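Incident review: delayed structure delivery

Summary: a single-chain prediction request sat in the queue longer than the usual turnaround. Root cause was a stuck worker, restarted by the on-call engineer. No data loss occurred. The affected request and its eventual output are reproduced below so the record is complete for anyone auditing the incident later.

Affected input:
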Amino acid sequence: MSTGIRLLVGGDVAGFEYKEAILADLKDDPRVASVEDLGVPADDKESETYGSVGIRAAEAIRDGKADRAILVCGTGIGVAIAANKVPGIRATVGHDSFSVERSILSNDCQVLTMGQRVVGLQLARRLASEWIGYTFDPSSPSKDKVAVISAYEGC
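Output delivered after worker restart:
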């Protein structure tokens, strides 16, 4: 597992079951170099909020410890908001194949979030698998659009 994407997977109590399923899938995916479980832990599901998990994942990506993260809470909104507070991070809620595709190809998002109370488990697993297969093309027409966001943040 020396080449491939370095992933983080996490969530809060409302996203625990999906986080566990996606984590198991990604551990067996040959495109994944490493996958780290950011929690919440099975033995203490109430230990963290979606905000702390989202910020911790985004900071790890910002600091170069991982390439991307997949986060799950009740709706996906809370972890996306939290991750987006970290300068240089672009996080989005994914709920269908097209939005997941465009999150990378048009927006170079490093964080995909989903809601356990919003999408079905099989769809969430499929979207996670699809998302890690996309790569942003820095020569694409979207390059300048992403640059506007990065410039505003000073990144």
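Verification: Residues 5-153 form a domain with the Ribose 5-phosphate Isomerase B; Chain: A, fold (CATH 3.40.1400.10).
Action items: add queue-age alerting; document worker restart procedure.
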